[in-house]
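Example record

One chain of 73 residues, shown exactly as stored in the release files.
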Amino acid sequence: EVGLKDLTSKNHMKVVLRWMRERQKLRLVCNHVGAHKQFLYTTWFTKPGTAQATATTTTTMGNIPPKKKPVRS
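Predicted structure tokens for this chain:
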């Protein structure tokens, strides 16, 4: 397993995150509050009650209602 001390750069961190995501070790969570979205990575075995990310309502992109088109007159 990779610890934080083993990450040598931001690019290395991105590679490790991509690797973990491809192997389904991580999941991407979207916190959607008002007009703001925050995307967070979390492990699959994190308990929802202990994660700070779940303190607010968590939705995925599929649950966000589509924008309505303005009616032209």
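Notes: Confidence is low (pLDDT under 50) at residues 50-62.
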